Amino acid sequence: MHKLIATVLVLIFMLLCEMAEAGSLFRAAVRSTTRSAERQAERTVQIERAFVRDAVRDAATPAKATQSVRRVQRYTSAAQAQRELSEGIAPGSHMTPNVARGRGINSTTASQRYGLTEKPERVLTVEIPSGTNVRTNKAMGGSPGRGELTATERIPASAVKSVRPVAQESYRPLNQ
Asked: Which of 123, 124, 136, 156 could lock 74 by a disulfide, CB 3.0 to 4.6 Å apart?
């Protein structure tokens, strides 16, 4: 079985080499695809390293108990928001350090500001109970100086006060 697979792979490789010799257009397409795959793999490694650095930094940061109820926000996917409404927010989950006044930000701004790997679909407003141990850090991969909170214990589902959709990018004509 292994010989058959190896033989098929060699034949495919030989065919690709013949096609690559046939024209520069195919070579350019293969080169572009290869570069794209390399860049994607590099981005994946960078994201994984950032997650590891973030986890190590969070573990090293001392947790402090909140002195009073603290209102924060948590940007997440729609499915994760549903889970957190029923099960609560897991320890180590990242949240904003406060709730900003005014109109909420859109998904692109939230991703950039807080260093999120995916555009969020929902924003939860959470009231962290007083006495809950939280860590305060800078948002890794986000805007310079932007803070974040992580709780060291599960936050109950009853602490989630509201859930709303995050505004997606909207089209605005340039001349209006």
From this structure: 124
pTM: 0.70
Question: What does residue 28 show for φ and ψ, rounded to 5 degrees?
Answer: -65, -40
Tell me how many helices (H) and strands (E) the chain has: 4, 7
Listed in sequence order, the DSSP H helices in 23-64 are 24-60
Q: Which residue has the higher pLDDT, 4 or 102?
A: 102
Taking a C-beta distance cutoff of 8 angstroms, is the pair 154, 90 a contact?
Answer: yes
Residues in the chain: 176
Kind plus residue range of the DSSP H or E element containing 94: strand 94-95
The pLDDT of 55-79, averaged and rounded, is: 91
Helix (H, G, I), strand (E, B) or coil at 124: strand
